[in-house]
Every structure is written in C-alpha cells, then in structure tokens.
Amino acid sequence: MASDWEVVSLVDHCKKIGSGATPRGGSSVYLEEGEITLIRSQNIYNDGFKKDGLVFITAEAAGKLKNVIVEENDILLNITGDSVARVCMVDNQVLPARVNQHVSIIRPKESSFNPLYLRYQLVSPQVQQLLLNYASAGATRHALTKSMIENLGIPKPDLDTQNNIAHILGSLDDKIELNRQMNETLEAMAQALFKSWFVDFDPVIDNALAAGNAIPDVFAKRAEQRQAIEKKENSNIQNLFPDEFEFTEEMGWIPKGWESGTLADICFFGKGKINTSELSLENYVSTENMNKEKAGISYAASIASTSQVPKFSVGQTLISNIRPYFKKIWLASFSGGRSNDVLGFQANDAVANEYLFSLLYQDSFFDYMTATSKGTKMPRGDKAAIMSWSVAIPPLILMEEFSNKVKPMYLANNIRSKQAISLSELRDTLLPKLMSGELRVSAAAMLEDA
C-alpha cells in the first residue's frame, strides 16, 4: 500500500538529469533529413512523443552535444515556456538523438525505477500540479531548474509493483495507440481514393489514354505514371468518368462535363439551435475539444453557459473556425451541439456527406481558409469567403459512389474512436489511484480486463 512506499528524491535514483543546448547557428543549421535527431519541446506531450516538426542536425553539430545523448527509454521533460512540465518517453525510432535547452533528460537507475512507471508518475495529476507550481514560483517564469527536478519526491514501491503498474497503464496506452494507427490507415486509404478520383483525375486519364484522346500538359507526367501501372478491371466505376478534359477560366483543366463552381454549390452551413440542457460532455463540440491535424474530437471539458447553441447532425462536417491552420475537422457520427466557433457543413444531398468531408479534409481547403481568414492574433475563417472556394464539381452519382466506398471505413473508425475514448477514461481514472497506492494492482488488472 501507499504507506509502505518510500518517497525518494530523483537525484539519488537517476543516472542522468540534464538539458541540452541549441547547436551553434540555431535554426539555420537544422536539417529536414539527417542521421541525428534534435528533439525539441514541440515533440513532447503528456500523451506521447510526436514526430511532427522533428528536425535533424549534422554529426559535427551533434558531436558538440555529447553530454545530452538520448538513450532508449529515456524520459523527456519540458522545462521552459508554456509547455513546461509536459513529459513522455522518447520514441526509440528517432534515435540517435540529442535534446535542446528546453528539454531535460531523466534517466533512472535500473535498480531503482522502471522508466515507464516513473514516466506515469511524472504525468500523474499530483506531480503535474507540483511541477507547474514549481515552474511558476521560480525566479524564471515558466521554468523548471535542474535542482527542482533532482529534489522532486516520487513514491518508490518495489520493482515488481512498478513493473505491474507500468504494464497495466502501458497496455491501455498500447490499445489506444493501435486504434489510432488503424484509424490513420483507413483515413489514408479514403483520402488516397479521393485524391485519385477528384484531384489527380486518374480514371479520366485512364479513359483518355484508352480512347486515344489528348492529355493536357498539366496531366502529362501523371499519364506516364498511369500507363506504367497494371490496372484492375472495374468498368462500372470507370464508365462513370469521362474520357477527356475541358478548359475552364476558373479551374483550368477539369474532366469534361463536370461543373466549375464554388463550395456553396454543393453544401451549406448547418442551421438550427439546441438547448444546452439536452447536451452532455459527450455530444458537445467546441474548438477546445477538437483535435489538431485532422485528429477528430475528444469529450468536452465543459458546456457553453448559454441556454442554446448551434446544433449539428449525423453526417455533417464540423470544422473549427478559429486558427484554421490547426486543421481541426470531424465527420459527425452523432447529433449534438457545437460552439459558435465551430462551423457545421451540410451537403446539399446527404448521399454526398463523406465526399464533402473528404473535400474539406484537403490541405488546399485549409490553406485557402487560412489565407482568407480575418484577424491576426486569433484569426477566424471568413464564412462568405469559405463558401466562395472554387471547386470542380463531379456528378452527384460520383459523389455518392465515393461516399458508399468509404462509409464503412468511417463507421469502423467511429467505433475505434469511441473505444479509445473509453480506454483513455479508464487509464486516467486508474493513473492517480495507482500512482498514490490507493488502488491495488490486482484490482486495477481486473478493471483493465473488464
């Protein structure tokens, strides 16, 4: 039990606690590819290591950072700025690596701590609050010093108990990550199909090549690639596409027979209100609980204090209208309410819901939304400009055919997303209880298996 657990200072049970430095020359020496990774604070989150924005440095620059070589299973802690106290295990796939001055390496002794157990201790609500208090109370605002980390008191049960706790929480995180990877794979498949049909126009190119029709120069390279590909016979789909292109002033070359129009021609903003008394944290969507980089939604932390909010329905595409460069987008799998800063897009015909979602999912849309947004510190999308976005409009039957093909993928993703949320809630419930010793390992294992 917790009363039997010794509380120890990290300095006595770690082989290394220390931050790195920025290579001479700063960001000017960063490489997009290379052998040595430089890990920065933007790669470190409490829910895991993020590879977005990874940079690399030369072997020469890395040689000057020998004292901050990252090793397998090291714990990384952000020690400055607004992300102070964020912590995770290093992703061993990015090694060899170094850290900059905003990140501290914590490497426990094998005889003292299971690294994963220690990471869960550091991410627990109790220790996170303690770290944030330290950071705000120091002479330097939002900063953790080496001595603060060294003197941090951490409960230290025996290694068997640590291993069991790490296994329980780690198994839940592994299941969450597996669900995320499977969803990511299916989403990539859906987007690859959309790009093939509606961006690269592969079926049109194939038909034009078969018919001996001219290929516009802009598609010449793609046509060469298509000729080298062995194609599967799918005449039912192929016959839905034309066999030539036509030029339009607004869109350039598009498939013959398709319309050159705007987003307003295929969808409209959702209307209607819903009483907040009918909402819960599970069916209210605000920009705060929409995830960046097209990663769907999480449960809300709170509901708007107003009596009513805009409503949304199944099949609508929801997009955060604040800072559109964050690319927050979700295809609604249930009905509910949304904040005023979340836009709801409804396809003119419901058979095209998944087509509309995939269209708005494109980086080109978010780039346009960002470029036409208003405001600097907190840019918001311009609703009139959004609906004026130029699009090539295929026949409705093609939108429907695409939607029918990807709908099962999105249904499967929705199921896994709900499972991931439930697993996250279970993990977050168990974490503080296991870290404090309030809950025995055997009882937690029963909950995990339930």
Rg, alpha carbons: 26 Å
Strand order of the largest sheet: 2-11-8-9
User: DSSP helix count?
Assistant: 13
CATH topology of the domain at 7-155: Adenine-n6-DNA-methyltransferase TaqI, Chain A, domain 2
Tell me the number of strands. 24
Q: What would you give as the CATH superfamily of the domain at 7-155?
A: DNA methylase specificity domains
- End-to-end distance, in Å? 23 Å
Question: What structural class results from the helix and strand content?
Answer: alpha+beta
How are the elements arranged and paired?
Elements: E1 6-9, E2 14-19, E3 36-39, E4 44-45, E5 48-49, E6 55-57, H1 59-63, E7 69-70, E8 75-78, E9 87-89, E10 97-99, E11 103-108, H2 115-123, H3 125-137, H4 146-150, E12 153-156, H5 159-199, H6 202-211, H7 220-227, H8 235-238, E13 245-248, E14 252-255, E15 259-262, E16 267-269, E17 273-275, E18 284-285, E19 308-312, E20 317-320, E21 329-331, E22 336-338, E23 342-347, H9 353-361, H10 363-371, H11 383-387, E24 390-393, H12 396-436, H13 441-449
Parallel strand pairs: 3-10, 18-22
Antiparallel strand pairs: 1-12, 2-11, 3-6, 4-5, 7-10, 8-9, 8-11, 13-14, 15-24, 16-23, 17-19, 19-22, 20-21, 20-23
Helix pairs in contact: 2-5, 5-12, 5-13, 6-7, 9-12
Structure characterization notes:
The chain is of the alpha+beta class. Among the domains are: 7-155, Alpha-Beta Complex (Adenine-n6-DNA-methyltransferase TaqI, Chain A, domain 2); 265-393, Adenine-n6-DNA-methyltransferase TaqI, Chain A, domain 2. Helix content is 37%, strand content 20%. It has 13 helices and 24 strands. Helix 5 (159-199) runs parallel beside helix 13 (441-449) and helix 6 crosses helix 7. The chain is globular and about 75 Å long. The two termini are 23 Å apart. The model has no long low-confidence stretch (mean pLDDT 92).
